[in-house]
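Recall from the previous chapter that SMILES is a line notation for molecules. Here it describes 2-acetamido-2-deoxy-beta-D-glucopyranose.
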Amino acid sequence: MRALVVLVGLACLAFVAEATGRVAGLSLAGYGLSGKLGRGLLRLESLQSLSLSGNNFSGDLPADLARLPDLQSLDLSANAFSGAIPDGFFGHCRNLRDVSLANNAFSGDVPRDVGACATLASLNLSSNRLAGALPSDIWSLNALRTLDLSGNAITGDLPVGVSRMFNLRSLNLRSNRLAGSLPDDIGDCPLLRSVDLGSNNISGNLPESLRRLSTCTYLDLSSNALTGNVPTWVGEMASLETLDLSGNKFSGEIPGSIGGLMSLKELRLSGNGFTGGLPESIGGCKSLVHVDVSWNSLTGTLPSWVFASGVQWVSVSDNTLSGEVFVPVNASSMVRGVDLSSNAFSGRIPSEISQVITLQSLNMSWNSLSGSIPPSIVQMKSLEVLDLTANRLNGSIPATVGGESLRELRLAKNSLTGEIPAQIGNLSALASLDLSHNNLTGAIPATIANITNLQTVDLSRNKLTGGLPKQLSDLPHLIRFNISHNQLSGDLPPGSFFDTIPLSSVSDNPGLCGAKLNSSCPGVLPKPIVLNPDSSSDPLSQPEPTPNGLRHKKTILSISALVAIGAAVLITVGVITITVLNLRVRTPGSHSAAELELSDGYLSQSPTTDVNSGKLVMFGGGNPEFSASTHALLNKDCELGRGGFGTVYKTTLRDGQPVAIKKLTVSSLVKSQDEFEREVKMLGKLRHRNLVALKGYYWTPSLQLLIYEFVSGGNLHKQLHESSTANCLSWKERFDIVLGIARSLAHLHRHDIIHYNLKSSNILLDGSGDAKVGDYGLAKLLPMLDRYVLSSKVQSALGYMAPEFACRTVKITEKCDVYGFGVLALEILTGRTPVQYMEDDVIVLCDVVRAALDEGKVEECVDERLCGKFPLEEAVPIMKLGLVCTSQVPSNRPDMSEVVNILELIRCPQDSPETELG
Ligand SMILES: *[C@@H]1O[C@H](CO)[C@@H](O)[C@H](O)[C@H]1NC(C)=O
Ligand SMILES: *[C@@H]1O[C@H](CO)[C@@H](O)[C@H](O)[C@H]1NC(C)=O
Ligand SMILES: *[C@@H]1O[C@H](CO)[C@@H](O)[C@H](O)[C@H]1NC(C)=O
Ligand SMILES: *[C@@H]1O[C@H](CO)[C@@H](O)[C@H](O)[C@H]1NC(C)=O
Ligand SMILES: *[C@@H]1O[C@H](CO)[C@@H](O)[C@H](O)[C@H]1NC(C)=O
Ligand SMILES: *[C@@H]1O[C@H](CO)[C@@H](O)[C@H](O)[C@H]1NC(C)=O
Ligand SMILES: *[C@@H]1O[C@H](CO)[C@@H](O)[C@H](O)[C@H]1NC(C)=O
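With both inputs in hand, we obtain:
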């Protein structure tokens, strides 16, 4: 049999043998040969063994092949043969012992005559397309040691009488469509070592004869429809190494006798209806490696062997096990994977787990574990997967996080707080990170961009703030990055990943911007400015002595901290609400009834009078003369207050009319006389019931005075924060004040005047409680509308200032007044200042209100000093309106005229039943 030449034609094979002409064995396995088997083969009369496996032979199987008188072994597995196995192939066999036709495309019935080939010792017809029932005499093959018919489409019941196969060692009928019950006498095949009947439709109970299979090492009955208990006698199958009963309908308890199976390596009982506890005795199975009892109805506690035996992989997921997870100290555990998910475990996560140095995967998700995450767990060197999703964990993510093998970290759906530690960047192997549905705050650490393997990141539904680190766009493998429902702001990082990120992954971050989000980015990140409340050091005016130097210093130091904290002032109720509101209020003809007509004739200029060689002009008549000289009247005793633009004094005109006089402190910056007069006259024309009327002015190059109507009731700031309870404001009064302010601002905006300097001390109350807004439009008197000057002028306006003042590139529009109005409205309803300084903390009013809204506890933040009751159906929408007005993005804030309309709707909910402002 040397020099064997093989010619492979398309249609036939020709074998030219050596001189003797007698070929006993032919093995051409894995040569990549193709073609069909021709009759030429039959000339090799002495052939005993033929193996053509792993080629690409196709076509039918020659019927006569089995007739070769000496052929004992035929292996045609893993080719492309098709068609039915010919009749007579087995019926005429002579010496055939080992036949494998596995892994072809044979179809038709399992050959009817297979039982006639009594010499067969092994028959492998697996992975074909054979159908029909098993021939009833198949069990008569009593020389047969292995039968493999797995992976076909064989139907019908298993024939009776399998115990006739007294030589059978291995029976594999896996993945067919066999029905009926297990043969009762299956345990009477004395040599049976391996039984695989998995993935069929076999029903009924386990036959008791099985207990006699004491040499059986492998029993797989998984994925059938078996019912009943697993009897105690299963412990008699002493050689079992694998017991797989998963995916059946077994019920009752798992027998403790399994603990006696000393050779057992794999125990798979998942997906049944087992009840009761997981036996402690299983710890006695000294060889056990793999245990899967998931998807049952097991109760009781976790047996100690899970963390204290040679077991390497354990899953008890989807049961109702409860109690604490106990891990013995210094456990000599070998465990590599533990899945305790979807049970009812409670208590803390034992930090002793970190002593199990072999642990690679720990899944404790969907339990009721509480407490914090033990710092030692997140730094375990071997740990690759940690899943603690959906528990009741609190505290923060330990800063020790840094396990170098960790690929997957899932901490979603807990109550974790605090910041994402920057050390997360040390998780160099991390591919998947899920921290969603927690209460995490702070910024996304830039170090995340160090984790080059990162593929999926879910940080959604937290309270993260700040911008996205630019370096994120360098992550090469990123597939998913969900940051939706946070309070992030600024630009999406550049780069193709973020250009194509689905909107749903970034939505509900009111401060995020970019083309993707249809909102253009300001050049500078918009942050609300929270400025120093006590600073009177106006850089443009005389420095004034500070009563308490220490306090002054302290507050200056905290400005940067305040700005940072202010970044948290973002809106969550936001855009949706306002869209709804916008839609509702666009009804024409409902302009404020209180609006006064302006007539040109109203402004009549009275004769100019020379007071100290200056120019005094009074609008609309009135005796222009002061009762005292200008200098005398502007003394401390008459001082009413100070603001960014000057000091206000009270005096009376000659005719007895009281007026408030504002001495502008910014003289050196004031425009030329002409421009000054033009602007002041503009302001003088603005008559409105809710505006403090400007009655006239006085001009000299070195002194400018503005003459206002005197409003008797003091300012709102005093009323809200400094007055006694006896002097409190009712809900209606507060509502009226809010509405009054809104109307006055709408009026100003209609005349293209921006107030610029809203705050509660600029809102005066007249004798009847009407709000009158003062100090409007004064910024226009400055030579240029310089942002720096503006913010320094109004820097006492702590917390009222819109974030765009901090951004050079954002145009300042009347929307900055809307912001101030929003803060004012909240202040009036809650009685709290926009920003409150605590010992070592700053409380931002908008945040307090938003949190109360989120929790449905608005009533708790309404001013306790409010007189009488208040209607919640008004309080909630006004609070929401206030928050919408304080949106970070100016375009998200409504117009003042819309605000007026909304307020009127809120006031009379019964008149407009379709409004849904709650
Ligand atoms: C096997 O043969 C068929 C034709 O009979 C051919 O289409 C197929 O590509 C071949 N496969 C391999 C792996 O050679
Ligand atoms: C049957 O043949 C397949 C494919 O060659 C092989 O994987 C399987 O182990 C064989 N079965 C037995 C029982 O030897
Ligand atoms: C399994 O057998 C039951 C009857 O024992 C039958 O109702 C069911 O349709 C079968 N399922 C399949 C997938 O053949
Ligand atoms: C655990 O092991 C450590 C060191 O291996 C030892 O110091 C300690 O005493 C052990 N604890 C117990 C309870 O055995
Ligand atoms: C942990 O278990 C849960 C529930 O059984 C499963 O959905 C999740 O995929 C598992 N986690 C990991 C990382 O495999
Ligand atoms: C987040 O905190 C708020 C209150 O601070 C609480 O109501 C909410 O349930 C928390 N969310 C989570 C997911 O823990
Ligand atoms: C990780 O990120 C930080 C800040 O982004 C950077 O300073 C550091 O060099 C990075 N480390 C590595 C190993 O890339």
